[in-house]
Amino acid sequence: MASSLPSASMSPQIINGVVEWYCNDSFTYVIQITLINPITQDRVMVQPDDQIQVSFYAPGGKLVHTFITKGADLTLDGETGSQNLTLDFTEEVSHKFVVCPQDMRNKYTKYTYCIKLIDINGIHTIGANLEAKVRACH
User: Residue-wise pLDDT tens for the chain (138 aa)?
Assistant: First the structure.
C-alpha cells in the first residue's frame, strides 16, 4: 500500500508579491529594476558608480541584513531593458532570518525590506516596505 507525504512549497518563491523561503535555505533572489523619470517618462539606468542598497528588517524595525551592490554589478535584461539585481542569500546570511518564538504558532515571521538607490544626487527610495516571509520547516 502506497501513501504519499504532503509536499512542501518551493523555496524560495514569490506569492502575491511576497518573497518566501524556509529557514536556513540558501538561494539567489533576482530583483528586476525598472526606473522611469516621472517628468520625461524616459528610462533611467543605474550607473556603474551608483549603489543599490537592500535592507531587511525584522518585526519592530530591527535591521537584520543589508546587501550593497554597485551599479556595475547589475545585469541588463535584453528582453525588458530592465536591470537585474542579484541578492545572494548564503548560509551565513540566511541564518540571520529566523521564525521568532512568538510566531511559531503561524510557523512564519514577516520581514520587510527597502531598496535604495545611492547616486551623486543623494539617496532615493525605489522600493519601500516590501514584504518577505520566512517559514519554519519543522
Answer: 566 666 667 889 898 999 999 999 999 999 999 999 889 999 999 999 999 999 999 999 999 999 999 999 999 998 988 999 999 999 999 999 999 888 888 899 999 999 999 999 999 999 999 999 999 987
Distances (CA, A) of 137 to 7, 10, 23, 109: 11, 12, 7, 12
- Give the integer Cα–Cα distance in Å for 24 and 7: 18
Q: Which residue has the cell 539567489?
A: 28
Separation of alpha carbons 94 and 25, rounded Å: 6
Other Cβ atoms closer than 10 A to 23:
18
Q: Rounded to a whole number, what is the distance in angstroms from the first to the last CA of the chain?
A: 26
Taking the model in full, what pTM does it have?
A: 0.89
Q: Give me the residues paired with residue 117 across strands.
A: 52, 124
The count of C-alpha atoms lying within 13 angstroms of the C-alpha of 40, restricted to the half-sphere facing its C-beta, is: 5
